[in-house]
Amino acid sequence: MIAAQELHTEFQFPQEADTQLSSDTDLEEPDVKNAKLGKGKGGKKGKKAPGEKGKCGAAKGAGLGRVNGHHRENGMENMTLFEVVKMGKSATQSVVDDWIESYKNDRDIALLDLINFFIQCSGCKGAVSAEMFRHMQNSEIIRKMTEEFDEDSGDYPLTMAGPLWKKFKSSFCEFIGVLVRQCQYSIIYDEYMMDTVISLLTGLSDSQVRAFRHTSTLAAMKLMTALVNVALNLSINMDNTQRQYEAERNKVMAKRANDRLELLLQKRKELQENQDEIENMMNAIFKGVFVHRYRDAIAEIRAICIEEIGVWMKMYSDAFLNDSYLKYVGWTMHDKQGEVRLKCLTALQGLYYNRELNTRLELFTSRFKDRIVSMTLDKEYDVAVQAIKLLTLVLHSSDEVLTAEDCESVYHLVYSAHRPVAVAAGEFLYKKLFSHRGPEEEGMPRRGRQSLNGNLIKTTVFFFLESELHEHGAYLVDSLWECASELLKDWESTISLLLDEPMPGEEALTDRQETALIEVMLCAVRQACECHPPVGRGTGKRVLTAKEKKTQLDDRTRITEIFAVALPLLLAKYSVDAEKVTNLLQLPQFFDLEIYTTGRLEKHLESLLRQIREVVEKHTETDVLEACSMTYHALCNEEFTIFNRVDIARSQLLDELVDKFNRLLEDFLQEGEEPDEDDAYQVLSTLKRITAFHNAHDLSKWDLFTSNYKLLNTGLQNGDMPEQIVIHAMQCTHYVILWNLAKVSEGSSNKGDMVTLRKQMRAFCLMCQRYLTSVNTTVKEQAFTILCDALMIFSHQMVSSGREQLEPLIYTPDSSLQAELLNFILDHVFIDQDDDNNSTGQTAHPAAICVCVVKMYYNDYGDIIKETMSKTRQIDKIQCAKTLILSLQQLFNEMLSDLGCNFDRSSSSFCGIKELARRFSLTFGLDQLKTREAIAMLHKDGIEFAFKEPSPQGEGNPPLNLAFLDILSEFSSKLLRQDKKTVHLYLERFMTFQMALQREDCWLPLISYRNSLQAGGDDDTMSVMSGYSSRGSSIRSKKAKPASTGKRKLPEEESSSCSTDAQVWMNREQNVQTPVMMPSPHLTSTVLRDPKKMRPEESYMGVYQHHHQTPMDYNTQVTWMLAQRQQAEARQQQERANMQYAKMRSHMQHAIRRGSGLMEDDEEPIVEDVMMSSEDRLEDLNEGMDFDTMDIDLPPSKNRRERSELKPDYFDPSSIMDDSVGIYLSIVMSTVLNIEKTI
């Protein structure tokens, strides 16, 4: 039987009042707790434990030729179970029925078929024979299958790509579930089939081979889920039987049927026995597989365990929803892999969604709430989203669980740049602030100031103001749109709050609150009409569905009908407030202008035009004037009948402005008179209005070029022109030229217009060039900006796309203009603004300029530098890498010239170059395959540079540039494992044997670089190598096998291509490797290789070309001595491993002597299992976990590791700079080097 007879059953299914949590003692381990509460029942006699597979009933001779089960439908009689499930063409039900029929005929052969099914599903090409099945233990069978694993690929069915293999996983899981369901009434209780399967899966789950471990864990967890379902059905049947028995027994003696009572008693006894059997099976799986694999080294395996335990707790909450099992989910929320943390949250969501289960989650919530709240800032966006959704469910179940501080940590996420996070936070905010309605709110009106929505809108405004992120109003609206769109689209209530007087006793909105309400209203209108997220939250406009298009049209119509009437009133009320007016004037851009005619709203249009004219006359702020200009532009649409009415109003306004400007300018420029401040203000205000309108409207018929050019020329001659007048005159003249260019480009002008445009453009550029020498900095900046725009517009590219007629307009700057533009950059960009002496910043070497630029100008030029660097890499990755390494080499040479060849590697100059190299390496990203060739070329150039110059101190000393290898080691982490070996071989070409023996400080760069190429070569294999486990079913080797006995072999053609490539790369004269260079052998399993690993012939060997061959003088005797020393060290290491193995074996044997098996209490969980054997991959997974008692021991809510996983502040520029500074340094470095070369 599965459990030892003297042990208590692990799974005690609660009955009646036993389902409630009593106290904190419920947090004890499942085995310890249930041992206290258990009934002390032993198993039946004669049953075998999973580790003691039955030897009786061996396979018959007639069945020896069958390897796997045969499906006898659809012409697939000769297909194995694995092939049938993989194809997925037959119904799983029929496949299982065929296997059951085979099991009934000969259970050994059918069970052998099932065993081989699990072996083949793991990707193993071997098969278990009947002889092996009869005479070998599970551990021996698994060891044999491990040796017969296919060595060609690291893929196995659960990890293979393609639609066939994606479907295979679901078919595999379905097969296990159907198998248990079809066998639940008889076969699973035969004390043979389930014992054997559980024993096999338990042994495979402890394998060193990842494929075995992954597949068997998935199978075991799905088997457990199916058994939980069976146990649930048994529990229901027992309850029904008990009720029937009680009902029959309560009858009077005359009506009571004693035979029925006996039948019910017998049925209840059988159900109880079956339930005990299921409890033992589930206990064996839980203790034999789950307890160890939920902390496996592989994230996929951990995720499977957590996902399934969530299913158990939800499916059979009476048995599993207690703190003995919830603790595993709580601990695993600290997992380093986002995939596992995500499974924890989704498992908990299924529990919190059911309000009936909330009482059982109270203790868990109180202890793990802080961790869940912190996960809203998880570095993985998917995890953060699910954490917020989980908190929303917690909030939905009880308002008292989350504190105000907890809620505030979620509130600010509505401003996140990642839309799913923001939407989830918006739903949380809506549930917390808007979804609660008191009895006094039931009778409130539907619309208007006194409506429920009116109060909720004010609440939204209050939240918006308290968040102090007013520039992100569009983000707030977008976050709330999916859950509160009806509230945000209640335009009537919003307008009522702005226009209606407050009721007696009601507190009126403050000016600040009204401004925020108008901004939120504008953002909601924009969201309804554009139907896409604000800038920074979307990858682009998506295609709207038919329903969304209809909603968009309906909203736009409704917006026009409401605001066409209300907007003139709002402008009249707030006409003197620039900020409010600017936002209100943007509303007509979203109108359906046809409504003005069809809805007979012309009088409201006239009122709107009057209000806009008054706003233009009252304000001189650029934002307000440009908003008025854009409103006229939106209303002046020739497709609608209102065009003539709006065009007349616009023309009248512009005529008055231009006439006033010409009149004022004539008086302002009169000779011999000193213009007063009032005249200057009148000219400036009128010029501002004209410039704002000229941006969106063609004012060419008013000939503004002549008057503005005259104004600019006078300013140059007199030198006393107010700077704002000069700036707006330049801008207005620039608009004149652009509108004329647009007219010429459309072909609607004659040849004379092009000649005039050419003269105007050149005269204006000369005027701006003269203003570059102005005393006023603001004027110089405006002139520089306009000149750059003009040079870009009138460059050679303007004749592209069939516009050859514009060739006369091409303008090429002369040398004087180029020099003045460069001087402006040097004088106003590459300077220290806090230092009056700018000469230091200009003459500093490139590294100082790089630091200056990154520190001071990141906010202004970061996007440009980042985009330039990105485009450079897209054009040519190799040349970009060569540019980076060249810049490092030049900095290294400058350092040598300044400090000499005996410099200190701890000096600030060398450390600065090394830090720059580290930042350069960050720019290559995480996808090593995409940058593989570029990184290889970078190392090649770096190695050649390091050995290029011999030592000035003579032979025996390190090369002059050897310290550069220390800088180059910063890029070693970007190399693939096979490329590290190739680069290491290339490095050996430049080394002599004496160099390899050197250990002085001056040779440390070479040693550290070689170590960086050798380290991490087997990181991916470490994650799948198992340490010694104390369970009897694990695979162990009695003695260590030498590396030479491994099964890893390459096909002949692969081996030959590899050697050929090596000859091409290295041009080696002899195929002998120095023992000193020989890496230590590693015992690996090839099925665990990276699925994306490329074969040797696919390596970028060709990037290394032979330049010179350094002679290698090998001393045979020294070589032999070094080899002997290496072998001695290997033996010592092996002896230490054997001692550790013996120690672990003694612990295991001691546990066996105590009579414990798979059901033994997990008082001291194994921490040195498959997971803990890879400390580099998963160290401190469950920090704060007490492995001695397995009680829940909450880690600190914000420990160091947790903070490292939190997402930085979304609006903290310093955090963004820290992640991307390498990019900016690299491009600035390349730019400066090119400038130096040009000079």
Describe the structure.
With 1239 residues, the protein is mainly alpha-helical. The chain is built from 48 helices and no strands. Helix 3 packs across helix 4 (107-121), helix 19 (452-467) runs antiparallel to helix 20 and helix 36 (846-875) packs across helix 48. The longest helix has 40 residues, at 210-249. Residues 1-76, 835-858, 1017-1118, 1143-1228 and 1235-1239 have low confidence and may be disordered.
Rounded to an integer, what's the Rg over CA atoms?
Answer: 40 Å
- Shape type: flat
Classify the beta-strand content into a percent band: under 5%
Percent of residues in helices:
55-70%
**Largest sheet properties:** none
Low-pLDDT regions: 1-76, 835-858, 1017-1118, 1143-1228, 1235-1239
Region (Disordered): 1-72, 1020-1058, 1186-1206
Biased composition (Basic residues): 36-48
GO molecular function, one term: chromatin binding
Keywords: Cell cycle, Cell division, Chromosome, Chromosome partition, Coiled coil, Nucleus
Main features:
1239 residues, single chain, disordered C terminus, mainly alpha, 48 helices, disordered N terminus
Give a brief rundown of this model:
Helix content is 60%, strand content 0%.
